[in-house]
Prior knowledge:
Elements: H1 12-26, H2 38-45, H3 49-62, E1 65-68, E2 72-75, H4 80-104, H5 107-128, H6 136-150, H7 156-177, H8 186-199, H9 202-226
Antiparallel strand pairs: 1-2
Helix pairs in contact: 1-3, 4-7, 4-9, 5-6, 5-8, 6-7, 7-9, 8-9
Amino acid sequence: MEKADLAPRNSPLASQAYETLRASIIACQISPGEKLKVDALQKLHKFSSSPLREALNRLVAEGLVTSDDRRGFRTAPMTAKDLGDLTQCRTIQEAGAFELAIRYGDDAWEASVVAAFHRLEKVERQINRGEAQRDDTWTQLHKAFHIALISACGSERLISACENHFDQSERYRRLSANVRSKSRNTVAEHKALMDCVLRRDTAKARTLIVDHIEKTAANVSKYLKENGL
């Protein structure tokens, strides 16, 4: 008799499958709208069906995968309309969280922001010199800096929402990154955000974080519209 596949909820294998699929989707290694066949994923990633299905259902809850009884699982589509909605969510949430963090953050929080900035700046200057790429290392450092900015806001729910929407935005950025020609001085943009922390300037912080997010969205939106998405 074939052994039953009884992986428990939140099992280590399910978590591994979730992280593997999530990373592939965010990096656009799986195309938007692509069908996710469980049997094919089993062969590719060496997970059994139960942890894969649990992982896919978690990704549905995050908005990175869609599901229905007739079509099964697919990666979420990427459209200019969805990007606009996502960008609006990010600007509202991150600007609010940033203001709260500046209000409540202590010296240790300031130090964590400065440290996160310096780690990111080092890699960004290497990128500007042609010595590195905007790869997974840069993505991790970029996210760490953004989360450091809001980490003292006092709301774990708000931080979690910001993290999820950051990752969904990163998926859009990755989709258009290879064809984007206009460069930005992101080192200066990130330093300006750090300076708002050190000056405790909430008004400037809100303006800069919204502008920072919207600049990226504008570049991606242009790509989506040019490609009929």
